[in-house]
Amino acid sequence: MPQTFHLTRRHFLLSALAAACPMPALAADKPETQSYGADKLDIYRAATPRGAVIYVHGGSWRRGSRKAVDAKPDWVTSMSLDFVSIDYPTLPKTPVTGQIKAVRHAMDWCFANVAKPERTVVMGHSAGAHLVAMAALTGWRPLPAGVIVNDSGAVDLITLARAHQGHLPFGTASVFKDRDQWGALSPTYNLAKSLPPLLAITSGAHGHATAMSNFVTNARANGADATLFDGSDYRHAEVNRTLGTGKIPDLERAVTGFITKVLQR
Questions:
Q1: pLDDT tens, 5-18?
Q2: Which of 45, 68, 59 shows the shortest CA–CA distance to 243?
Q3: Model confidence over 166-189: pLDDT tens digits?
Q4: Is 226 exposed, middle or buried (CB count within 10 Å of its CB: 0-12, 13-18, 19+)?
Q5: Phi and psi, residue 86, nearest 5°
Q6: What is the mean predicted confidence (pLDDT) over 201-210?
Q7: Among candidates 254, 37, 240, 22, which has minimal Cα distance to 127?
Q8: pLDDT in tens, 40-85
Q9: DSSP string, 31-89
Q10: 3-class DSSP string for 50-61
Q11: Is 137 exposed, middle or buried (0-12, 13-18, 19+ CB in 10 A)?
């Protein structure tokens, strides 16, 4: 019948085209999910991995999900790196100090099961950037190959408050209520003497540029190879969600250049 012949011929042509032009390998639609203690992480495998990127999501220390990865898995796996996105316990059940411990636990699990620390870059955004900085840059061992701190005013709570007339912005203030703890919970004032290379990214969010700049200055004073990307023309969410989409080429060049550099050491 004509209709059946048309369908069969179409399938034949599509099959021949697929055989002649195989699709490039992309990250799996369904990642491999593993548990590290009480929480889970997703691993997006590269075809021939030469290392890994661990990603810690944001969410004001209260919410968020390892599933909120946008275009990052395909982007990272295209660099021949596994991409690992973690969940971690949140407020009100788990205080920030407990969240830092969970991120360290996830890092250790990945170092043992995905890629060695010297072949791993750890990256976080917003609250996740604060947790990554506290987990990886304040004396924890082993050190990863590099750390990407993507836009968190909380890296320096004291400086952030100064930019807001002495008070933290609403979402941060509800988490860091005790002023006496601002210094202890700011990575800027707790940086180790031995640090991995780091890339700090700032957006146009009020107070973030000053806080992130002070963070980088202190890291450099401790001998770190620290770079600050000025993303003040972009929104807080934008510097994260667009990664891997090509919408902010200079930001993507900075991130890919950093990853390439630290994994060549």
A1: 343 444 433 333 33
A2: 68
A3: 999 999 999 999 999 999 999 999
A4: buried
A5: -110, 150
A6: 98
A7: 240
A8: 999 999 999 999 999 999 999 999 999 999 999 999 999 999 999 9
A9: PEEEEETTEEEEEE--SS-S-EEEEE--STTT---TT--TTHHHHHHTTT-EEEEE---
A10: CCEEEEECCCCC
A11: buried
Alpha helices per DSSP H over the chain:
2-20, 72-77, 96-113, 127-136, 157-162, 170-173, 208-221, 238-241, 249-263
- The backbone torsions φ and ψ at residue 84, rounded to the nearest 5 degrees and listed phi first, read -120, 120
Mean of the per-residue pLDDT values of the chain: 91
For 100-156, write each residue's pLDDT tens digit. 999 999 999 999 999 999 999 999 999 999 999 999 999 999 999 999 999 999 999
> What pTM did the predictor assign?
0.89
Judged by phi (left if over 0) then psi (alpha if -120 to 50, else beta), residue 185 lies in: alpha
Q: What is the CATH number of domain 27-263?
A: 3.40.50.1820
For the chain, the structural domain boundaries read 27-263
Report yes or no: 190 and 130 within 8 Å, Cβ to Cβ: no
Please name which of 225, 160, 238, 230 lies closest in space to residue 202, comparing C-alpha atoms: 230
Identify which has the larger pLDDT, 195 or 15: 195
Put the strands of the sheet holding 39-44 in their side by side order: 32-36, 39-44, 82-86, 52-56, 120-125, 146-150, 198-202, 226-230
- What count of other Cβ atoms lies within 10 Å of the Cβ of residue 63? 12
User: Which pLDDT does position 29 carry in this prediction?
Assistant: 60
Contact 189, 246 (CB under 8 A): no
Q: Tokens for 87?
A: 């969940």
Residue 70 to residue 67: CA distance in whole angstroms:
8
**Structure token pair of residue 191:** 């940086």
